[in-house]
Amino acid sequence: MAQTFKSLPAVPDHAALEREILAWWDEQGVFELVREQNRAGERWSFIDGPITANNPMGVHHAWGRTLKDVFQRYKALRGFDQRYQNGFDCQGLWVEVEVEKSLGLNSKREIEEYGIAEFAARCKERVAEFAEVITEQDRRLGRWMDWDNDYYTFSDTNIEYIWRFLKTVHERGWLYRGHRSTQWCPRCGTSLSQHEQAGEENYKELEHPSLYVRFPLKEREGESLVVWTTTPWTLPANVAAAVQPDAEYGLRAGLWRLAVSGEQYDHVARGEELVGLHYTGPFDDLPAAVKEHRVIPWDDVSLTEGTGIVHIAPGAGTEDFELGRIHDLPVIVPIDESGRMLPGFGLLEGLSTDEVEDVVIEDLRERELLVEAGRITHRYPICWRCKTPLLFRVVDDWFISCDEIRQPLLDANATVEWTPAFYSKRMDDWLRNMGDWNISRKRYFGLPLPLYPCECGELNVIGSRAELEERATAGLDQLQELHRPWIDEVTISCSACGKDVRRIPEVGDAWLDAGIVPFSTLGWRSPEWVPGGYATGASAGLSGADLPDHAYWEHWFPAEWISESREQIRLWFYSMSFMAVTLVGRSPYERVLAYERVRDETGREMHKSTGNAIEANEAIERMGADVMRWMYSEQVPSQNLNFGYGPAHEIKRRLLTLWNSVKFFVDYANVSEPGKSGELEPLDRWLLSRAEQLIAEATDAYERFWTPDVISSFEGFVDDLSNWYIRRSRRRFWDGDPAALEALRTALLRSLVVIAPVMPFLAEHLWRVLRPEGEPESIFLTRWPEAGERDERLLAEVGETRRVVDLGRQARASSQLPLRQPLRRLVVQGAELAKLHENEIREELRVKEVEFGDVEATELRVKPNLPVLGPKLGKELGAVRSALEAGDFEESNGGFRVAGRVLSGDEVLVERVGKEGWTVAHADGITVALDTALDPELEVEKRVLDLIHELNAKRREAGLELTDRIVVTLPESASDLLAHEDWIKDEVLAVEIRADGGSTEPEIAKA
Ligand SMILES: [Zn+2]
Ligand SMILES: [Zn+2]
């Protein structure tokens, strides 16, 4: 070779190499060159799901961000024109709670005292800070995005697009104010929606009181109902008691509960007989309590826990509230928004729901209403954001009705291709079961809902900033951005009666912010292209994103592909689809790749508190970004990923095969003599075919968005390249055979492109080492290779040969014969294609002869498969078993004839073992048998091989160059090995071998 290649160290320092490549990419503007090169290409539309700019990126985020980058790089190599807009989620409860923590605020009252404008400023600062941190991390991970033009969901433009959506929803008649019982976080002081709370992580095992309380019946002197509750704070709000009308209830010692069969009762009655009775409530003396209580029927009363009689407080539970509507019961709300008891509850007033417990229990005990008190541990919902246990409150919230859109959403989902495919059904399940969308949050820094209900009954919904300005009656002059508190100062005139109306104080669900992105960032219905027109309001100065025009939206909508974690089914995938189906009647994405969760390497959840969490920055520096990306890409996305330094170490070890192969090439190419020529041999043609096969397999895997198959194809290829091609061609490399060198280089270069999307740094580095003159300086400026012609027959032959050799090694290993011990004979059965490669098999397995034919060296051992045969044969089993044991059977069509019966293959357990003097291995229809008998010739050859091994080790210890020649001195005792002098000389590059040494060790000297 005329070229000199940069030599490689023994092992790569991934992190250092990656920083070097990053700097080089920046210097050369490689990403810009890639975009420029693809500008005229076909579009491939990807939309980035926004990451909350609230904390540094975690290793769980890095999974998705890796997959996004892998496919964007793949598509770029294929020449597709792409958008590279990164997104940040910027408002709502996430940001608010973190800012509260950092300011030491712990209630809404404290936020209001701090000042909403100041609070908004702190929220914006936090977003700006972490957007920068995340950008830095993402770049280090290798992600290529258009970093100065990110979209920030708190931009005024984004807000306006959501306003437009809400106005449309209102025009369809789907928007309504609901008076409902909802899950309520007492710390955040807001209700939470079904989709926010649905995740498994939003439940926790908590301990609560378990109380059995007596409700004395008014019509039945001396008789009481017994109810069970775990929420003492709801008892003062009791209104009714529910029984299951068809169930049997028993009275004993004056107490009614569900009858248990076999037990004795004074009286037994069906639930319906109790319905309509009145009872004295547990806290009738309190001014706020209802004074009349009755028994109502309810089919859903649990008959497996409690007493079968359920205490109903319509102001403190969702099902209670619904029952209250059916039975026209009064609603008593016992707690305020911070979860403290309201006035009217006597001693309890001002206490939290926890503090109420002891007071209630003591009071009930004194009044002899407490039948039994204990503790219970149960699964209980906690706030998805701040982890506070949730309560139920009846409040007014704003909802979007799902009735009319449910079916269109299901239809839209039917057009989406999900990877893995079964997530499609998860989405369907969610869509079928979702309740109306609760869009309002009683908070501060979020989407200002543009709802202006007038006392005349008109609900005014503003659809844009222009409309707001047109209808404003006051407050416009101070409106610096569309956030609270400024937006709250703007009043508008009612379209029905002309009176001044105020906005409701609520802000919006954060999923509205992210869901509108396929419209707001792509310029849907925007009459013109506005430079910087997306980076408005709170995002001004943070981004330079334009507001494109409608033609741009037409070009880029819908996204061909998106990728986020599986939980986004009920979050982003859902909200985005909801908004797109509402606005344009179709899904905003065509294909989704979703993935599960990151666990620690032992499979446990990662938590800062348990000390097993790994920070993304630390992981990138300690493992290397490529190694992380490899781990994410290798993972089957429908299973949790066990992430850690152990698995990373293992990957680094595996990556060494590639590294060593490139290093091997470089070392030999650099010492080869220029000007020599050589012919391609079958093995070269095989390697080149193998590279084309890799390209075909990997292309197919990328097109299916299935990175695990990319990795396994690549690893299989590298294994073939290193452990077959290089191994089988060593001598040619020593001789500097240019055909071998060129074949190896070509195969390496082709494979590097295939793996470049997964590990861009290492691939780029090795590309730059091997790059032929005239090829682009960056691997990402090359084109995705089309799989060329390949010799399928040759691939199959060598594939089978490798399997035979692997089996031969297994057989050797199980007989514990040393690897360097030559053997006489190998018999191969079931590998006809390997016949032409007998030489290779002989050399690899160190056998003198290879015979293709029936392996008779095995003994077939057949045993009954008891779980199958036992029931079938019954008493006859014994006879069959002894016939099998005695070897008294014949093979017949994959089954066995024994004791007058024919048994099928799955009715027996078959084992093939070597007969005395043979060792056997068997897999996938191939059987190999090694003759283990030794003779003097074989024993001497073993000693020669040991010697060659030892001498080469000494060469390495002495630090000799590959081309250095040596003189060998053997101890006298080894003089018989001189019979193989030429063989030894060849293998260790010796010019002379003497056998007159006095020591017991062979010695070498540079010639
Ligand atoms: Zn909360
Ligand atoms: Zn009005």
Coarse shape: globular
Distance between the termini: 26 Å
Helix content: 25-40%
Bound molecules: zinc ion
Count, helices: 31
In spatial order, strands of the major sheet run: 11-9-10-7-6-15
Give the helix/strand class.
alpha+beta
Spans of at least 5 consecutive residues whose pLDDT stays below 50 are none
Number of strands: 41
Q: What is the secondary structure topology, with strand pairs?
A:
Layout lengths: L13 H15 L1 H9 L12 E2 L6 H19 L9 E3 L3 H11 L4 H7 L1 H26 L9 E2 L3 H16 L3 E11 L4 E2 L2 H4 L5 E14 L7 E6 L10 E4 L4 E5 L2 E4 L8 E4 H4 L3 E2 L13 E5 L11 E4 L5 H10 L25 H14 L3 E12 L9 E10 L5 H9 L2 E3 L3 H11 L3 E2 L1 E2 L9 E3 L5 E3 L3 H7 E3 L16 E3 L6 E2 L5 E2 L1 H6 L1 H4 L29 H7 L5 E4 L6 H13 L6 E5 L2 E3 L15 H8 L1 H10 L6 E3 L1 H27 L10 H22 L3 H28 L3 H18 L4 H11 L21 H24 L7 E7 L8 H8 L1 E6 L5 E7 L1 H8 L3 H9 L3 E4 L2 E4 L2 E3 L4 E7 L3 E6 L2 E6 L4 H22 L8 E6 L9 H8 L1 E8 L5 E4 L1
Parallel strand pairs: 1-2, 2-3, 7-10, 8-13, 17-27, 26-27, 28-29, 30-31, 39-40
Antiparallel strand pairs: 4-5, 4-16, 6-7, 6-15, 8-14, 9-10, 9-11, 12-13, 16-18, 19-25, 20-21, 22-23, 23-24, 30-38, 32-36, 33-34, 34-35, 37-38, 39-41
Helix pairs in contact: 1-25, 3-20, 12-13, 19-20, 20-21, 21-23, 21-24, 22-23, 22-24, 22-26, 23-24, 24-25, 26-27
The structure holds zinc ion (ZN) (2 copies).
